[in-house]
Amino acid sequence: MSFLARLFRWERGRQKTRYHKMLLCGATWPIKFDIYFLRFPEGSEIKPHTDKVISGQHYRLNIVIKDADIGGDFICSNAIFESARIKLFRPDISEHPGSYIKNSSQKNRHVNHLLQPFEPQVS
């Protein structure tokens, strides 16, 4: 699906779980980046994983807009910066699961930034 066709449309997340993502914007030049709005409904869970890239350094900034009532904790093995609502980390080298959401739905804004062009490997 083309970049423009994906703008502002909900699609399933990559980890074969129940989360959804909406592409808000992105670019390939001069710096490759994308911004997604993520929605984690009740019953969602992200298993521990890393996001593989062929080249470059992958950075992700997660901003939690609404916490889940129960669960939905973001866990990162070695975040660059972490506060209650802001998480900056390298998803290509840091394992990052999200705990099972038992109540409500959690919403995150998520910004990806790569220092060099990359080809993502979907797992």
Ends apart, CA distance between termini: 18 Å
Our Rg estimate from Cα atoms comes to 14 Å
Mean pLDDT: 82
Beta-strand residue percentage: 25-35%
Question: Topology of this structure?
Answer:
Layout: H1 3-6, E1 10-12, E2 20-27, E3 33-40, E4 58-66, E5 81-82, E6 86-89, E7 106-114
Antiparallel strand pairs: 1-2, 2-3, 3-7, 4-6, 4-7, 5-6
Commentary on this structure:
It is a single chain. This protein has 123 residues and is mainly beta. It has 1 helix and 7 strands, in the order αβββββββ. Strands 1-2-3-7-4-6-5 form a 7-stranded antiparallel β-sheet, with no helix packed on it.
Compact overview of the structure:
This protein is mainly β and 123 residues long. It has one helix and seven strands. It starts with a helix and ends in a 9-residue tail after the last strand.
Output the keywords.
single chain, mainly beta, seven-stranded antiparallel β-sheet, disordered C terminus, 123 residues
